Each structure stands twice: as C-alpha cells, then as structure tokens.
Amino acid sequence: MTGDRSPVTVMIAGGGTGGHLMPALAIAAALRRAHPDWRVLLVGAARGIEAKLLPSRDFPFELLPAEPIYRKQWWKNLRWPLLALRLWRDVDRLLERERPAVVVGTGGYAAGPVVWRAARRGIPTTMLELNAYPGLAVRWLARSVREVWLGSPEARGHLHAGSRTEIVDTGAPIQPPEPAQRPDALRHFGLDGKLPVILITGGSQGALALNQATAEWIASGRADGLRVLWATGAASYSRFNAMHRPPAVQVHDFLDPITPAYAVADLALTRAGMMTLSELCAWGVPSLLVPLPTAAADHQTPNAQAMEQAGAGVFLPQSELSAARLAELVDSLLADRARLAAMRVAALARARPDALAQIVARIGVLSG
C-alpha cells in the first residue's frame, strides 16, 4: 500500500536587484512548465526589489530580514550580529517547514544565508553565477554546494570549488529567441529595415550617463540617417521624452518585452549586467558596453572586458563616454560591415539558448 507522495519542492533564493531576481523568476517559470506538479517557492529579502514584484507574480514566496554587506558605509554592518541571529532562525524554520528537495541560489544577499544553511542540512544546493568575476557569496559557497552554474565561462578561474562540487557552464537562464521574429518586430516599431537601428538601454532603472550622452548625440545631428530605439528608464523618461520623433527616434520609459528591439537592432549601447549581455549574445547583437562604475565590486567591468576580448562588444568606460565618443564609435562600426558581422558571430558563439532547459534538467537530477 502506497500513500500519496508530497509534491517536490524547489526553493529558489535570490534578489535584492533585478539582476538576481529575474533569473530566479525565469527558472521558476521553466520549472513550472516542465513539472506542473512541483511546488516552486521563491525566497528573497524584505528590503529588495522582490518585495514589490513578487506579490504580483503567481508563485508562493517568503521574504527574509536579510541585508547586504556594506562596503563603504561599514558602520551599518555593526548590526549584523543581531540581524544574523534572527536571519538564521527564520531560514532554519523555513527549511524545516518546506523541506525542499533542492535549493537554488541566484545571488543577492538573501541567497547566501539560505543556500549555506541548506547545505549544512545536507540538502542538494546550487548557486548560479552570471558574472565574469564571481560575487562574494558564490566564492564563499563554492566549497559547500553541490553545483555552481556559470553564465560566463571566465568565472571558472576565480572559483575554488570543493572536492564534491561540480562547476557547469550553463549560460544565463533567458528565454531563447524565437525564429523569424524580425519582420514582426520591424512592424511593431514602424520600421522598414532599410536604415541601421541602434538600441540604447540602461535597464529598467535607466542610466543617466547613457541618456545624457545619447541626447547630446541626437541633438548634434550625428544620429541622422539612423533609427534609434531608446529606453530611458522610468526615472529619466520625462526629461528626455520630448526627443521622441518616430520613426527616427523612439523614446520609451522601458521596453517590455525588449525582445522585439533585439530582433531589429544592428548595434546596442547598454550597461554590462550579465542578463543583458546574455540576451545580446542570444540575439547576436554587437554592443557598446558602458559598465556601471558603482556596481558592487565593479563586477560589470570584467563582464564588458570579457565581451570585448571575445570580439562580441566594445568596452567603453563611463569616464570616456561622451556624445562625440559615442558618435565616433557608432560611425566607425556601422561603416565597417565586416567587423560588425564578426561581432555578431562572436556574440552568437557565446550564446547558450539551451541554458534554461539545462538548468531545469540538472534540478531534476538533484531532486533525486
């Protein structure tokens, strides 16, 4: 006689920023498609972006009293001993209640404590590291977890894995491009495909430095004869939306979904977060990459450098970004069709369209 089996529970911990939350949501959605009978629980921080986004998503979730380690405002770390006691207690209670078959960490200050406590309990654990230079939590946990999944192969050389830890180059968990999407995307933006298209985006929050340089570049007339798809971010949209002159210049607060823009772009000017870079590679879009200089541990700079060394992008430090420099780079790249084609090939060579499928398969194996 056999009783009803409890559904497999997979706990995905990550957040703080969109760069950690979006991979968690992508994995959760893929797991639900592959295993509709499984329970997928998302775990984040009460002070992270997930506190706003997860209530609108159709997944159960828990928010923990986790905080980042402050590098500059060091005095804020003095409260960590008391915070840690409460955090460990809450994590232990959560693990005891849910009894997950697998715990996946996608980064951020909520992921480390959950993955560490789960590993100590003998639960199969994994960490996803998207950046070329791994974050503190992944470097610390690489000796304890069962697997580390890499979005950038360059990260492998910076990790000291445990004797039973497997490091796997999965790629970043993004939705792969759909074939034959370009004609529909051109119609979506009212474009005929005869002129080069430049995509400019600083992510959902925008990037003021990119926006200012773009505005000055357009005002100078150097963008005439091109088509510019420009996502300013919500915070800056009111400052730049007067430059909206379709079809030549199309100004949006954000592009959701952004995939039609990737489908038509001949060149992109973006930050260098790994989810963005993974999408650029998947679509084969050559890129001008301006890392966010205030990103934690300057992690976007190694990402941009890795793309440049692979021949898929051009690394442009923010200190060198100006309208004149932007015009110079855009003009030179668009005039050199052979180089642009080689950058597209190099970007596609780094793409991992099977990343989500591989990650779901590995979770299935770990769940036993």
How is this structure best described in words?
The protein has 368 residues and is an alpha/beta fold. The protein has 2 domains: 9-173 and 354-366, Glycogen Phosphorylase B (Rossmann fold), CATH 3.40.50; 182-350, Glycogen Phosphorylase B (Rossmann fold, 3-Layer(aba) Sandwich). The protein is 39% helix and 15% strand. The protein has 14 helices and 13 strands. It has helices at 18-34, 50-53, 80-98, 111-120, 136-141, 182-189, 208-219, 237-240, 259-264, 274-283, 300-309, 323-335, 337-350, 355-366, and strands at residues 9-13, 39-45, 61-64, 102-105, 125-129, 147-150, 166-169, 197-201, 227-231, 249-252, 267-270, 287-289, 313-315. The strands form 2 sheets. The chain has a 7-stranded parallel beta sheet with strand order 3-2-1-4-5-6-7, sandwiched between helices. The protein has a 6-stranded parallel beta sheet with strand order 10-9-8-11-12-13. Strand 11, helix 10 (274-283) and strand 12 form a beta-alpha-beta unit. The protein is elongated. The model has no long low-confidence stretch (mean pLDDT 91).
